[in-house]
Specification:
disordered N terminus; 255 residues
Length: 255
């Protein structure tokens, strides 16, 4: 009786790494053959591309969130197999640098945040300056996001504050002052008007001047945004009878 010794090998199998609906249109399926013993090491490189994600591993069904085949590990396949990518979000860092002399309130450093996490810049102030926005380019004066603009994090980012010289405007509600008959020898009744700060910085009004009027104020002439100061204006003596629409000269500076 002769005895034949036969070495048994698992058949060569095909493993097909298949793109899913999130992959780029140019991504195509990649077919790999196992060794004769049915073994195949899963590639460690991302075979397909999805913005903001990496391939954590592979699974037997599309859309799976649990990895069944780990990159870099060797598995035995007894049948031809189709594998789909299991996606995980990339994580990124984000930092805000306001610069010397600035005071910052809020979070300036975000570490290992998921792709597309909503980020809002901190509140930054600096004496004699106004924050125009934030940029990732050192020395740029073109904001990429506004001072308090929320955005979605898509990469590692360092934002630098862009500071500008503050601008302010003063809105004056000016009265029409009437001088009545028989008032040539004394001032007529006083009238009032308001100075309203409609800008974005604290304002100091240094002087109000007019050749025909004197002024008194309801408070200090330093006031913040949207503050209102009432000014009492009194005509000087010996004005002729008539109606006067006076333009007042207002000298101001940012405070």
């Amino acid at each position: 009786v002769s005895v034949m010794s036969v070495s048994a090998y698992a058949a060569v199998r095909n493993v097909i790494f298949t793109p899913d609906d999130y992959c780029l249109p140019t991504d195509v399926a990649i077919e790999m053959a196992t060794a004769e013993n049915g073994k195949l090491t899963i590639p460690e490189d991302d075979l397909f591309t999805r913005e903001g994600y990496y391939i954590a591993g592979w699974a037997n069904r599309k859309g799976a969130t649990t990895v069944q085949r780990q990159p870099g590990k060797t598995y035995t396949f007894s049948v031809n197999t189709v594998l789909y990518p299991v996606w995980k979000k990339n994580k990124y860092d984000c930092e805000f640098i306001a610069g010397d002399g600035a005071t910052v309130t809020g979070t300036t450093m975000y570490s290992q945040k998921d792709y597309n996490t909503s980020i809002t810049p901190p509140v930054a102030t600096k004496p004699d300056y106004v924050l125009l926005g934030w940029t990732t380019v050192v020395g740029s004066d073109v904001p990429e996001i506004g001072p308090a603009e929320t955005f979605q994090l898509k990469k590692n980012s360092v934002f630098y504050a862009i500071w500008g010289i503050p601008k302010f405007e003063i809105s004056v509600n000016t009265p029409s002052i009437k001088v009545k008959d028989n008032c040539f020898k004394k001032p007529v009744a006083s009238a009032t008007f308001d100075i309203i700060n409609t800008g974005n910085q604290k304002i100091t009004v240094e002087a109000l001047s007019s050749s025909n009027y004197t002024f008194s104020y309801s408070s200090s002439l330093t006031f913040g945004m949207n503050d209102v100061i009432t000014v009492t204006v009194t005509p000087v003596e010996n004005l002729p009878v008539g109606s006067y629409d006076e333009t007042f000269v207002i000298n101001g500076s940012d405070g």
